[in-house]
Amino acid sequence: MKLYEFARAPNPRRVRFFMAEKGIDLATIERPQIDIAAGENLSEAFRQKNPMGGVPVLELDDGTCISETMAICRYFEAIDPTPALLGSTALEQATIEMWNRRMEFNLLLPIAMAFRHTTGHFADRETVFPEYGKDSAENALKTLNFLDTHLAKQPFIAGKAFSVADITAVVSIDFARIIKFRPDAEQHANVLAWHTRISERAAASV
Ligand SMILES: N[C@@H](CCC(=O)N[C@@H](CS)C(=O)NCC(=O)O)C(=O)O
C-alpha cells in the first residue's frame, strides 16, 4: 500500500498518527509526497486517485484508492480494531464520532480557513477573503476557550479514553502555529496540560 501525503499538512498527519497508534510501522509504508503548495494535488494524474484533489490518499495494492482522512482511519480500525480509536460499544462510537466531528468543524476547519484566508497560501486556486480568515481565527479561539472548560472535567476530548478526537484536535492545534495561533498559558492551562500528555505519545511524532 501507499500513502500519498504532504508531510507538513494536517490531514496526512492525522492519518500517520492514527496508523502509528495502531502499531503500523510507517517506515514500511511507501509515502509519496505530493507538493500541495506547488499544486501537484491538482494534476490530472493525482485526480485519478482522488477527484477532490486533496491529500491524504491511501492506495491499496490492487490500485483501489481511499481518500478522506476519516475514511482511511476507519479502514485501519476495521482491519485491526485494537486499540479502539473509534470506540467499541455503540455509545462509545457515537460519542467519539460526535467529538471528532466537533473537532473537525469547530477547530480544524476554522484553523485551516484562517491559514488559507490570512496568508493567501492557495491564492492560485481560490479567492482569498482576509476578513473571513480573521473571523475563522476568532472561531477557533472560541473552541479553545470551550475546550479548556471541557478538559477540566475529563482527561480526553471524548471522555475517559484516548481517541481519534484527540488526534484531530492536537494536530489542528499544532498546525495552527503556522499562523502563530497558540493556546495561552493562562487562559488555556487545561488545554496545554492535555496537549502535553497527547504529544508525549510515541505516535505524535511520526
Ligand atoms: N476532507 C479531506 C480534506 C483533504 C484536504 O483538504 N487536504 C489538504 C491538506 S491537509 C489539501 O490537500 N489541500 C490542498 C488544496 O486544498 O489544494 C480529508 O478529510 O482528508
Keywords:
about 210 residues, mainly alpha, Glutaredoxin, Glutathione S-transferase Yfyf (Class Pi), Chain A, domain 2, 2 domains, three-stranded antiparallel sheet, 7 helices, about 5% strand, binds glutathione
Encode the helix/strand succession as letters. Answer: EHHEEHHHHH
Q: What is the level 1 CATH name of the largest domain?
A: Mainly Alpha
CATH topology grouping of the largest domain: Glutathione S-transferase Yfyf (Class Pi), Chain A, domain 2
**How many H/I helical runs?**
7
Based on Cα principal axes, name the global outline: globular
Distance between the termini: 18 Å
For the biggest β-sheet, the strand order reads 1-2-3
Q: What does the radius of gyration come to?
A: 17 Å
Helix content: 40-55%
Low-confidence stretches: none
CATH architecture assignment of the largest domain:
Up-down Bundle
Query: Quaternary status of these chains?
Result: single chain
Instruction: Outline the biggest β-sheet.
Output: 3 strands, antiparallel
Structural class of the helix and strand makeup?
A: mainly alpha
State mean pLDDT (0 to 100 scale).
Answer: 98
For the record, the count of structural domains works out to 2
Q: Which percent band covers the strand fraction? A: under 5%
Instruction: Work out the number of β strands.
Output: 3
